[in-house]
Amino acid sequence: MKVSGFTFIKNAEMLGYPFIESIQSVLPIVDEFIIAVGKSEDNTLEIIKSIKNDKIRIIETQWNESMQDRGYVYAQQKMTAQFSCTGDWAFYLEGDEVLHEKDLDTIRNTMERHLDNPEVEALYFDYYHFYGKPDQVGIAGYKRAPRIIRNTIRNYSPDGLFFVVMDKNKKGRYPRAAHAGCHIYHYGHVRKVERNNEKIKQVGKYWGNKEPNTFSTYGNIDLGEIRPFTGVHPKIVQKWIDTEAELEFTQNPGYKITLKDKRHRIRFWLDEKLGWDISKKHYSEAKL
After folding, report:
1. Is 252 left (phi over 0), alpha (psi -120 to 50) or beta?
2. What does residue 73 show for φ and ψ, rounded to 5 degrees?
3. pLDDT of 8-26, one tens digit each?
4. Is this model's pTM higher than 0.90 or not?
5. What structural domains and CATH numbers belong to the chain?
6. DSSP alpha helices (H): ranges in the chain?
7. Taking the CB of residue 287, how many other CB atoms lie within 10 A of it?
8. pLDDT surpassing 90 at residue 67
9. Complete DSSP assignment for 6-25
10. What is the widest separation between alpha-carbon atoms in the chain?
């Protein structure tokens, strides 16, 4: 079995992503790692080149600055890296996502177990979306997402988040997926506030936002979306947490609960009290 990892990145140093920790967390279980590195205004490319590992293959890219429709430039960059993968499986990990060292054997073994079962087209992960500070998670976003795709099926990415399988030339569907057996640790929303604000300024245009709203605090949120994190962070990201993450969180005292928040609370209650998960999924359960 051959496994390819892949990602895309741009201005990662400037925006405070744990991108080196992300790459290093997955290297032990892949046979190659493809990185589409967009032309950056910082040392992102040089930092990646400083990782001395023969598995890493860098593709230097120029982002299409005129592509400002719903973030599709992310999909273009993701596919640039994905379409260069040569493994049986292709493992997509974003620059603010990290694998836990305790889960590496589980992930590799799950890929081995399903390698010869065509019913399993992808593997999905549970998520810890850290929010505001590293000892709490937000639960309003996607609970699970497929990040490993079988590299022998026709598929593409209409955005950076998910995969679409093309059985027919003009009609796609989400992949049939099995559970990878563990979590991905997502740190994008515990970066320093000023780093997150800079990201919004830089990438808002790719969603057609000419004047994106500035970001001043993580506190503009319903506390009903927050849960304590009682687990242990991956060892490889601990130094980044100590130096680059926000460590204090306070809700904005003027925050008003919205109708959307109330709907989310109903969804949380159904999930936590009754076990009814009605969150959106970008996959269907494989029949095993």
Report:
1. beta
2. -60, -30
3. 999 999 999 999 999 999 9
4. yes
5. 1-288 (3.90.550)
6. 19-26, 44-49, 72-82, 104-114, 193-203, 238-244, 259-274
7. 8
8. no
9. EEEESSTTTTT--HHHHHHH
10. 55
